[in-house]
Amino acid sequence: MGPVFTLWRPVASRSHEEEQPLHLSLDRQTFVHHLGRMRVLTQQAPCPASRLRWRGMLIPREHGTWNLLLEPVALGCLVAPSLPGVLLGLAALALILARTSLLRLVSARNTPSVRSLPPLARSWAYGWLAVAVLSLLGAVGLSGIRILLPLVIALPLGAFQLRSQLLRNARTLNAELAGGLALSTSTMMIALAGGLSLGTAALLWILPALRVLLSILYIRARLRLGRGEMSAVDDVLDAHLVVLVVLAGLAVGGWVPALAAAAFGVLGVRTLYELVRKQRGISARRLGFIEVSLGIVFVVMTAAGFRAGL
To answer: pLDDT by residue (tens digit) across 194-204?
Structure first.
């Protein structure tokens, strides 16, 4: 007979003072067996918080970042498809995947926590950084050095955005605009790699750059509207109106396709409908899905306009 464990179980009574012991008989071998299983399960059970930390360390959690990256890359590849353009898109993707871990490494460089940083984070960051460098070198080798001209715009903007992230100011308007505009230059690089002239590539870059500007202004205003703040609505509507007028003039002059200008008309109608009716209570996730859908419409219409000359 193994040891007897005694637990105390209260018994309802009028005086609430009576308690009755509950006896459980458990032999030593069974007790040790269950204790060992509990230790194994405790050591092997995955922690949801740990999984979230790993995911946030390796993959950017900002859904808008993926939209700001994929739209310019897709637009450039559709308008001027080429192998160097695909390599440039891969390089941009690799930099985004390496960015989160690299920032964590840099911010922890002079602190004791750098020693406890998981080795996988270092390998992930350095591995994707190597992919980005090799892809960029391959694109330059196939298309020439001129595809690097847009880096004159991208590098200062990207450096400002990274600095803002290190200083924990990444949510400011200037930081978000700098990051989005830096990513939009991938359209110009891919267009140059595909054989387009510098002027045509610059005009093609202006479109996703304006899309980034309007999208960031709209999302910030829409989220503020959900919190009951009305201050930024007029500014966003004015910005859309100015962009539409400028693009209409460029389309009339034959500088940009009319279909590309019409794509911004769709964005303007969306903004007017959402902000003027002043409906509150939209979630950031739903807003992100709407922006992805509109991004697909923008890319398809703009690419079709350049390819077909419409």
So the answer is: 999 998 999 89
Q: Same domain, yes or no, for 146 and 97?
A: yes
Task: Answer for the pair 101, 121: CB distance below 8 angstroms, yes or no.
Answer: yes
Question: Do 192 and 210 belong together in one domain?
Answer: no
Is residue 251 a contact partner of residue 260, using CB atoms and an 8 Å limit?
A: yes
At residue 76, the 3 state secondary structure works out as helix
pTM to 2 decimal places? 0.74
Of 27-41, 151-165, 265-279, 295-309, the one with minimum mean pLDDT is 27-41
Are 65 and 192 part of one and the same domain? Answer: yes
The CA R_g of the chain, rounded to the nearest whole Å, is 28
Domain count, the chain: 3
- Residue type (1 letter), 305: G
Amino acid at 15: S
Number of H helices, E strands in the chain: 11, 2
Q: DSSP letter at 23?
A: E
- Residue 201 placed within a domain: no
> Is residue 178 in a domain?
yes
Q: Which tokens belong to 166?
A: 């290190």
Residue 177: DSSP 8-state? H
Nearest by Cα to 264 from 222, 225, 213: 213
pLDDT at 211 over 50: yes
120: nearest Cα among 166, 61, 60, 54? 54
Rounded to an integer, what distance in angstroms lies between the CA atom of residue 188 and that of residue 196?
9
Q: Is residue 234 part of a domain?
A: yes
- Look up the domain containing 282 and give its range: 206-310
Q: Residue 239: inside a domain, yes or no?
A: yes
Neighbours of 301 (CB within 10 A): 19
Give me the count of residues in the chain.
310
> Which of 207, 259, 193 has its CA nearest to residue 75?
207
